[in-house]
Amino acid sequence: MERRMNQVPLFSSAGELANMVITSNLIDVALAKIFELQRGQAALPCSVQPMVYDPTPNEPNRTIVVFAPSPDSTQYPLPQGGDLVPYPDFDFLCTKECPSVSINGAALELFESLKNHLSVLKTELIARDGQLIITGHSLGGSVASLFTLYLLDSMNKKSKCRPICITFGSPLIGDFGLQHSQWNSFFLHVVSNKDPVPGLFLTSSHSQTTAYKPFGTYLLCSELGCACYDDSDLILKLLTVISSEVAGGLLQVVDYGEILRNLKKRAICKGRWLAVERFADPFSAGIVMELETIGIDWTKHNIDIRRMEAEARSLAMKTKAFDAKKLNDIKKYMALLEWYKKRSKDAGKGYYDCFKNGEFKRDIRIGEFMGHLNAYWEDMVAQAERKPQKEGASFRTSWLFAGTTYRRMVEPLDIAVFYKDGKRDYIKKARSQHYKLLEQWYEEAAKPTTREELDSKKQKVSVLLTEDSCFWAHLEEAILSCKSLTNANSTPELRESSGNDLVKFGEYVMEQIENYAVSPEIFLKDSSFMKWWGEYKAYITSPSNPCSSRFIEFIDFMKTGRYGVYGRSEVAA
Amino acid sequence: MEETVENLIIGLNDGVISPAASLAMEAHNSPSKLFLVKKIRHLSVVVLAFRGSMLPNDWFGQRGHSPFGETKIDTGKFPSVRSLNDGGDAVVNGSFLWRFNDVLDKLSHAKELKKAIEKKRQVVFAGYSSGGPIAILATLYFLENQTFSPRCLTFGSPLVGDRIFSHALRREGWSDYFTHFVMKYDIIPRIMLSPSSTEHEQILNYFKSKLDRKNINPAPPSGFYLTVMGNASSVASYEACHLMGCRNPSLDIIKSFIELSPYRPSGTYVFCTGNGNLVVVKNPNAVLQILIHCAELGESDAAEVEKRSLDEHSAYPNELKDSLGGMKAVVYLDVDPANDLGLSPQAMLCLQAAEEFENRRSRNLENIRTDRNYKEKIEDQLEKQRKYKENAQISRLGYYDSFKLQKEDADFHANVSRLELAEIWDEIKEMLKEFELPDDFEKKPEFIKLGTIYRRLVEPLDIANFYRHSKDKETGAYVISRGARPKRYRFIQCWLEHHEKKLFGSRSESLFWADVEQLGIDIEKKGYLQEIKDRIHQLERNLIACIGDRSLDDDVLLENSTFVKWWRALPLEYKSQSDRIDNLIREKAAGV
Asked: How many Cα atoms are found within 13 Å in the side-chain-facing hemisphere of A332?
């Protein structure tokens, strides 16, 4: 308790958020349309029929799509139980943590049966401008959720439609999580503590039940009030408690209209007792009150309030001001490295070699800057990976350029550390996953270089970074190959394979040169590259295969000293 | 705490509030006059009370596209009532603003007012019900014009302005000039938190028919309380989510689907509890929460509360006579008003969150002042920049050009220092945008001064960096295009202009280099046009003025600077102040 005395007080806003939703007319609008549809189609045989309510003069910017189960399916909402069926069509939801997507069989069957219709509807709705409320009750809500996901995947930055999905008493849908996705915020699930349906699969004896994951915000309610949660573990726990406490597991139909009317009235009532004094620990006081309000006895169900507090505290740190600070920090470290690079160039060596040999006193700080930069970018990459594919892709386009500059600047330093310790084969054994992904994403996004771009690169190559961030790893391997080649103790086989590797390296370097993809700093007098050349040129062996023209070109380029004018724009022009 | 209410809250002499309340009621009942005047001679106070109106059109007439009838405030009349960062102008109720404009001319020429100002009497603008907004706007108008400092007393007034309105009042230090009395259940102070509706009309028509006295006892409407208070509660919960630091991203999505009233309380509120006690609250976030929570229903008194919500609107003179009768009342200042107001535990949490939010803002300010990573670091870095600038003069190049070349160690260190400074100011900028610093931060001389030094010294480096990397090709000119000029400079410039009461955009001396660079580029691209000529003339005038008032350092005139080289190459017929500027350059050369 004393520990918290010094800390800033925290609050839980689950109750206030729910109150804001209840007292607004957002869910009234959705529910009213569900009832309207149910009344109108009592006689229809189809179990879940979507209905589109177009904007009206009163609500010119609002389209509502309703999936309501017919009275029949309300009685037996989930004929097939809780089986999860793999559904590759929804693989766009895959993330690092969830490599494949499975959907509840009953919901999927309904969704599939409507898919042709929904596909047309989706295209039509995305083109609209304004609010789009997608809603449904029970199994209808499940299909509404699936349809919303389907729609979100097709939306892009230009789409003007703003969707929200509101479900009432819907069962869980699948095994994928959206905790790290923006998409999570488009779902609002209303669940009464008297409704057995939402937690249906959590208490049955089905083997797959543990795989279900809730996503979105859950508005849980009882007769006394309501609260909103978006932590999926907590929601899972609360749904389990609710479904275990619904008497006898009988599928009674819960009247959400009546529940809403009651909650609206509750929202402006004081409740049973009045405050007598301030709360010493407002966070736990708030949580306990919220849980009681939705009918959960937290002591009985072992809910860890301290864990919730720790999480809230770490979230509270992440403000926009904090982000702005971090971003500028990163810019600063990059500027520091750029200067280090410039200084090294002036010393005639290049920053790779300076750092590897620990030339300057300031090299110690360089390690520190690298650490900050690596931590930042590893986190950015991890964030992108936790999102569904499309969202991850659009998330990273905004920073891929900066990330590429970072990779080209910093990875050579990581390579230097690796080879300094006398190790071999960086690319296969030690290359960090975040570098691989940054490179992969860059290549996916890159367009073929045009003639003009190549010209402009030619002019600027002296200030550009070497494009292949693994260049120095290739060089280090070439140095080792050169040693094997020149070592009298090497076996003839080793010598031959080393010779071949060196030819390949020569071809690789020439290709980089032709594309102006390598920095002229590699040709600095004291660079490892020039040292390697110094040793290698005496031992150039004809390869077993006929010599490629590119290799011959490389040897010529080096021997005639043409590298001396590479990157000098005034000469090149 | 026992003190006289009147001294504590508004610094008015004893015995003003009750007479003001009575006069405000009387004005409300006098449809033939725009306002009534009463002198309280022995106190040297003059009260002007404005007439209200119960016509629904006078509340929500300017409905337009919004059911809340809001409109941007007229910044010609109210230049301070705006945000100094991205928040824009304050929003006020259009009908109230229109009615104020209607009164203003007569009010300005009222001889009673002129005389009161002449004799240096304390002027109090008062208003009951919808007379309140007129009193509020009139007070604000005269505070803006600095002719004199009136006080404002309202009784059962509806809300007038939005969050920016309240923020601007606190920033200018005017919040204490406004005191609003509100009965525990009075529906009118809450009514603007709900969109205009048939319920509104029922309520206003009821009061109107009471006022008209055509019907001595009109039947009170019923069933409105749930709607009006429900909508008001939605606003309070939305704000509570922010105060409580809600991190659920659904909040923003849901908010975009519902229409919440833009209006928020401002000034000091005095809640009349009905048991003779008054509760004084100055924190506007706490006021909003109390407005909603203290009027919540008990277990089974819905119909009774609904009736009280109408009756209490007429109860101010009596209630205040009772409360102030003994001259001493129990007064709470932002602490534990729960007992007297009968608040629920949830309401208590909201109040604690409002209080904590206020504390956090003060802590953030304290942090900036004392933590080594803020103000002290800014000063250190600025000192480095000053030295850099001084040393750069020696080469007759100036620090702008030296920085643009990035040749020496010193240039690089200046660049790191530039980034360090950007980091701190960007963080402050974000805090301001999120209201995470006290409302008067942008008004504090210490920060205006520090910011202005920073802007004049370091913005040229940002411009140099921008044109060094030819960023104009990607984003467009530094000065013109959105997103090119860092917002931190725009905001800081705004603070100074506001402080000096100058036109926005008039203190852009730190943009001199960007103008020079862009002119150079545009001449190369388009050649010499009339438009270019006009811009050159403008630049010349700016240069002479800014060198004159020392807001621009004369190192732009150094022999080898981009400016001087460009200037010398410029054909004579495009210059209008050739001699004067040549002279300045010569003087500078002689001085170095």
From this structure: 20
Is B222 assigned a catalytic role?
no
Encode pLDDT of A499-523 as tens digits.
Answer: 889 999 999 999 999 999 999 999 9
Distance (Å, whole) CA B279 – CA B120: 31
Which DSSP letter does residue B375 get?
I
Q: Kindly report the CA angle at B436 between B348 and A275, in degrees rounded to 5?
A: 5
In chain A, residues with a C-beta closer than 8 Å to the C-beta of B293 are: 270
- Inter-CA distances, A308 with A213, A240, A305, B446, Å: 19, 18, 5, 41
Q: Is A316 on the interface with B (CB under 8 A)?
A: yes
Closest to A405 measured CA to CA, from A438, A429, A357: A438
Q: What DSSP designation does B194 have?
A: S
Question: CA B548 to CA B580: how far, in whole Å?
Answer: 12
Helix (H) or strand (E) holding B490: helix B487-499
Q: How many angstroms separate the CA of residue B307 from the nearest CA in chain A? A: 16
The whole-number average pLDDT for the span B416-435 is 94
pTM for this structure?
Answer: 0.90
Tell me whether B430 touches chain A (CB under 8 Å).
yes
Tokens of B91: 């929003």
- What is d(CA B309, CA B257) in angstroms, rounded to the nearest whole number? 30
Task: State whether A325 and B436 contact (CB < 8 Å).
Answer: no
- The answer to whether the Cβ–Cβ distance between A20 and B238 falls below 8 Å is yes
pLDDT in tens, B325-349: 544 454 554 555 556 788 899 999 9
Strand, helix or coil for residue A503:
helix
Grouping H, G, I as helix, E, B as strand and the rest as coil, residue B3 is: strand
DSSP B372: I
8 Å CB contact between A204 and A172:
no
Distance from CA of B342 to the nearest CA of A (A): 6
- H or E element in which residue B519 lies: helix B512-526
Helices A400-420, A320-346: crossing angle, 10 deg rounding:
50
Name the 3-class secondary structure at B196: coil
B129 has catalytic annotation:
yes
Q: Residue A519 is encoded by which pair of tokens? A: 């920095």
Instruction: Using DSSP bridges, classify how beta strands B35-40 and B178-183 pair: parallel, antiparallel or unpaired.
Output: unpaired
Q: Give B195 to chain A, closest Cα distance, Å.
A: 11
Decide if B413 contacts B384 (C-beta within 8 A). Answer: yes
Is A286–B260 a contact, with Cβ atoms under 8 angstroms apart?
no
Burial class from Cβ neighbours inside 10 Å (0-12, 13-18, 19+) for residue A38 reads: middle
What residues of chain A lie within 8 A of the CB of B240, using their CB? 13, 16
Which of B:269-328 have CB within 8 Å of A? 292-293, 296-299
Please choose, from the candidates A192, A184, A14, A180, the residue with its C-alpha nearest in 3D space to the C-alpha of residue B253. A184
User: Which B residues in the span 374-403 are in contact with A, Cβ-Cβ below 8 Å?
Assistant: none
Whole-number Å distance between alpha carbons of A520 and A567: 6
Concatenating the DSSP letter of every residue in B170-182 gives HHTT-GGGEEEEE
| For helices B409-433 and B377-393, angle between their N-to-C axes, nearest 10 degrees | 140
Structure tokens, A52: 């589109």
Confidence label for A133 from pLDDT (cuts 50, 70 and 90) = very high
Instruction: Quote the DSSP letter at residue A418.
Output: H
**For residues A430 and A441, what is the distance between their CA atoms, to the nearest angstrom?**
20
Q: Which residues of B touch A314 (CB under 8 A)?
A: none
To the query of whether residue B252 is one of the catalytic residues in this protein, the response is no
Question: Would you call A61 an interface residue with chain B, using a CB distance cutoff of 8 Å?
Answer: no
Give the integer Cα–Cα distance in Å for B464 and B514. 8
Q: What is the CA radius of gyration of chain A?
A: 32
Q: A358 and A367 in contact (C-beta within 8 Å)?
A: no
Q: What is the largest CA-CA distance in chain A?
A: 94
Long-range contacts of A313-316 (CB under 8 A, 24+ apart): A313/A7, A313/A10, A315/B247, A316/A8, A316/A10, A316/B245, A316/B247
What's the complex ipTM? 0.91
